[in-house]
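Backbone geometry tokens:
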Amino acid sequence: MSDGFPSPNHGDRRGQRPELIVLHYTGMEDGPSARARLCDPAAEVSAHWLVHEDGRTEALVPESRRAWHAGAGSWQGRDDINSRSIGIEIVNPGNCPFPAPQMTALRDLLRQIMRRWTLGPDAVIGHSDMAPDRKCDPGPRFDWQALARDGLALWPADGPDQPLPLSLDTIGYPAADPETRLAAFRLHYRPWAQGPEAPADRRAAAALAAITKRPAPSLANKYPGGSRASATGQRPT
């Protein structure tokens, strides 16, 4: 693990602390290309951590600083996700399996971050969860269930057949059209599912809503919109 912080693309956390860990795939051809972009001042994108295919893990931005990885979106009613999160970019073009050494390194990194910031498995989300209308990473090839078995993410059992919109609101998904929210939920929890909304979607969402922890109420957000996407993201705010 590298102790350097080579990316200049970061700022003040605007009075917030990490409450979430957002997982991304880089969506680029290889690790060196992704690293170069995440450390390029002209690109104005970054992440706190970069996990390579072989398990090498690089610290790009101090966790005490606001990296530019999440972009516009929200989770559990809170925006400016960059100020509230730690971003992890996982080297993957978006259509390939995630190698075992990479997933092992990710597990180790998650344990360390969660311990440092006293975060539970409910704090670990995908970019597609908080920005369902524009992002799909870490994608359908990412093994969320394996993380959940190690206590590093949530995975639903089978719950009651309850209205899907209510459950998705409780879990934390932001407002979007029903098809977009269903697609985002499936991408994370039922990536094999196809077609219109089904009872299995509603039961899984209800089970997840029942174990979701909601953040304590806080003052209204001062900085709407957040900033930064993945290594292929847009300009910061």
